[in-house]
């Protein structure tokens, strides 16, 4: 029996839709707000039906809160623009209000009859949602491929913004638990006083304000995968409870004497050194050993020279779609700055910079000032004097007519007879290793008479 969650703040349409679906033997729950919906763990449902015009809230936020559960949005004529945005951001379909019963039932049936999404990979083995083919990321993909079916605990390590949740989702989709829920929890975002209740649940009256019993997120993930992001922020008391889950598969809600059993695969992520934290008493050593069965290390963006522009292009296209500005391109100077910047915030910071560029750009090119990268944090940039001389008009022609790979190939073939590999790399704003990898990928041979370093 399919489980459906309705998120609607108006009593009459909410109850009417609930009655309609229950007559078709669906198991239906309802919520009047995003907070109420989140408390019901929307990731555990088969479908979420959400009104886009909730009082004081943006219904499109339900897409992120429910992932990977499909979301069917409801809208009236006045919010059609918002419906278009929701569909672009991943809503499976849209139904008009007031709802037509036959239309609703047909749409719900069609969405629920779709096969569960399977992991889609490129020929090079890149999991869905992940970008990049540098050597470091190829190692990550290979580790995901080998680890996912093994059903063991995984520790994902990497700086903030490197895509740790994407790794967790890829592991879940490629595992035998793919049809069960994936519950994602950011331990750093939950107040310390509430974290145990959120994770393990509580009984009615267990503490002040506990007016009803509540299922914890660990229990909600039963049969599936629990992803704990920033696990290094978990309080010691909660760590002890989590250790019990890993050792015995047991949980006990706050205020209860009843032991419940769960079958959960745990994926944990952190940007901190858990082993060092365990030595200082901030993290349980026995829990660290339980977590560290398999480890996946994500490289920071600054170490992925060969991927940065590819990632930037994908993020730029998404930003252009969100802001209805098709056809925007990065100028050569903007690309040099992107390659030369250290990116302490990694992919998340790159995404923000490109979004800023799309909003501020005038004309069809995004320039360095539009990106607004902090100058004091840049790595050694490619100087203006080392850039091949080109009039502004010539730069625009190159940007309009050549892709990034075309430009790279054009520049290398034109200048390699006069420059060493080091000079070529400097002028392109990349490392020599990156230059070599791109040569290999594009099939550009080195000239035998190319000038070598003295």
Automatic annotation (TrEMBL):
GO terms for molecular function: ATP binding; DNA binding. Gene3D superfamilies: 1.10.8.60, 3.40.50.2300, P-loop containing nucleotide triphosphate hydrolases (3.40.50.300). It comes from the Bacteria. The modification 4-aspartylphosphate is found at residue 51. InterPro entries: AAA+_ATPase, AAA_lid_NorR, CheY-like_superfamily, P-loop_NTPase, Sig_transdc_resp-reg_receiver, Sigma_54_int, Sigma_54_int_dom_ATP-bd_1, Sigma_54_int_dom_ATP-bd_2. Keywords: ATP-binding, DNA-binding, Nucleotide-binding, Phosphoprotein, Transcription, Transcription regulation. GO terms for biological process: phosphorelay signal transduction system; regulation of DNA-templated transcription. Coiled coil: none annotated. Transmembrane segments: none annotated. Residues 3-112 form the Response regulatory domain. Residues 130-359 form the Sigma-54 factor interaction domain. This is Sigma-54 dependent transcriptional regulator.
């Amino acid at each position: 029996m399919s489980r459906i969650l309705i998120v609607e703040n108006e009593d009459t349409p909410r109850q009417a839709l609930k009655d309609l679906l229950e007559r078709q033997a669906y198991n239906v729950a309802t919520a009047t707000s995003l907070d109420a919906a989140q408390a019901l763990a929307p990731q555990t449902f088969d479908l979420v039906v959400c009104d886009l015009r909730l009082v004081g809230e943006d219904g499109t936020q339900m897409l992120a809160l429910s992932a990977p559960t499909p979301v069917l949005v409801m809208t009236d004529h006045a919010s059609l623009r918002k419906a278009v945005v929701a569909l672009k951001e991943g809503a499976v379909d849209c139904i008009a209000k007031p709802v037509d019963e036959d239309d609703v039932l047909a749409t719900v049936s069609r969405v629920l009859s779709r096969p569960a999404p399977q992991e889609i990979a490129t020929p090079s083995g890149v999991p869905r949602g992940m970008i990049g083919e540098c050597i470091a990321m190829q190692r990550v993909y290979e580790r995901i491929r080998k680890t996912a079916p093994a059903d063991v605990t995984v520790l994902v390590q990497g700086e903030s913004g490197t895509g740790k949740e994407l790794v967790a989702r890829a592991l879940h989709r490629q595992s035998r638990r793919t049809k069960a829920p994936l519950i994602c929890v950011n331990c750093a975002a939950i107040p310390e006083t509430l974290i145990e209740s959120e994770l393990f649940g509580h009984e009615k009256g267990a503490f002040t304000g506990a007016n009803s019993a509540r299922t914890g997120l660990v229990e909600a993930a039963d049969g599936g995968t629990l992803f704990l992001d920033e696990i290094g922020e978990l309080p010691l008391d909660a760590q002890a409870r989590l250790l019990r889950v890993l050792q015995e598969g047991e949980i006990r809600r706050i205020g209860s004497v009843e032991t419940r059993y769960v079958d959960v695969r745990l994926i944990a992520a952190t940007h901190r050194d858990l082993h060092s934290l365990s030595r200082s008493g901030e993290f349980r050593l026995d829990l660290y050993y339980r977590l560290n069965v398999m480890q996946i290390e994500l490289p920071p963006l600054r170490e992925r020279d060969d991927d940065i522009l590819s990632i930037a292009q994908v993020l730029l296209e998404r930003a252009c779609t969100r802001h209805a500005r098709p056809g925007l391109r990065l100028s050569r100077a903007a690309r040099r700055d992107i390659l030369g910047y250290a990116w302490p915030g990694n992919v998340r910071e790159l995404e923000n910079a490109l979004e800023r560029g799309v909003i501020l750009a005038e004309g069809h090119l995004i320039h360095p000032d539009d990106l607004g990268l902090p100058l004091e944090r840049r790595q050694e940039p490619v100087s203006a004097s080392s850039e091949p001389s080109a009039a502004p008009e010539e730069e625009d022609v190159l940007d309009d007519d050549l892709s990034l790979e075309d430009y790279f190939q054009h520049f290398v073939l034109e200048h390699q007879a006069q420059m060493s590999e080091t000079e070529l790399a400097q002028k392109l704003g990349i490392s020599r290793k990156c230059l070599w990898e791109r040569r290999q990928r594009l099939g550009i041979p080195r000239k035998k008479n190319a000038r070598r370093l003295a």
